[in-house]
Request: fold
Amino acid sequence: MMSSIVKKILKTITRIQVLVVFLAFALMVFFSYWFMSEIERENLISAVDSAIANTQSYIEADLLEPKTALGVIADNIRSMIISNHSEQDVVDYIIGIGKYLESEDVQMSYTTGVYGYFDVFNGLFFHNEGLIPPSDFVPQERPWYTAAVEANGKISISDPYIDLVTDAAILSFSRRIFDNDGNPLGVISLDVLMNRIGEFAVNTSVTEGSYGILIDKNYNVLAHPHPAFIGRHVSLMNDGNALIDEINKYNTVSERKAIDYEGNESVLFVRQINNGWYLAVLAYSDEYYKSVSQIANILIFIAFILALGLSSILLSIVSAKKKAEERIQVMLDATPFCADFWDKNFNVIDCNRNL
Reply:
């Protein structure tokens, strides 16, 4: 009976040992996953920041070219006026420069026009394409004009707006020019389409299927993969008000759970770029966390194999020990005399069967 109890105890201990082995490897998987996933997430966030920085560089480079062009155009027109060139000379120059910017050599076909409002020519407004604005058109109320007046001689970049003539989303680079005495001569402006800049933003990618959204300082959507969302306020989008509050509070958003315009679970990042706009990047959750999930699966597989192997070794040792004990017991039982095992108090705890 005592032998039977001991065997049950040993069997229970063996099960506990195997359980402890699997528990130890489970803990190893947990802590290894936590440590490695944190490193991987930092790498993913770094990849997002790099992608946004690259897009920002493309946008800034795309804005620099028309800005430089307008600076040269405004300086030339100012020099012509100060040198007493006629109104027709200035008009001819604007027509010529418009054709030049659209030529294959310059490749600035994304510009939609060069134009100006001239105080010096009694309020003349002229567009290089000869476009005639609507009857209610007031230059002094247009974004390009107000931005130039506010910049006071420096080149300004307006917020994106819808052009009255082309009905397209544009940016205006404008500059107010003055004579040597500081009297205003007029405002020169160059318009560019937003579509190129929008493409840079939308094509911002960190994982397969991810995309970018460009937002202005007033939280209006400037670029989105779905055209219907362009021009909308962020507050009208999924969880928009909460997103605006978070941007206002932290000026940045990282790994925020979101639902995209197609209803997919996504991870959202928002960064402010140098001109004050915001670039948001959405990545599908499954794709974004794919590498982290792969780490977990690999660790679980390796831990299971190791725990299974170690448990097999442990069970083999226990089995071999059990067989050795059984052989010893057979040998004792086969002896022609009685063999007892006593504890320290001389109590019999076991004996052979030859009583």
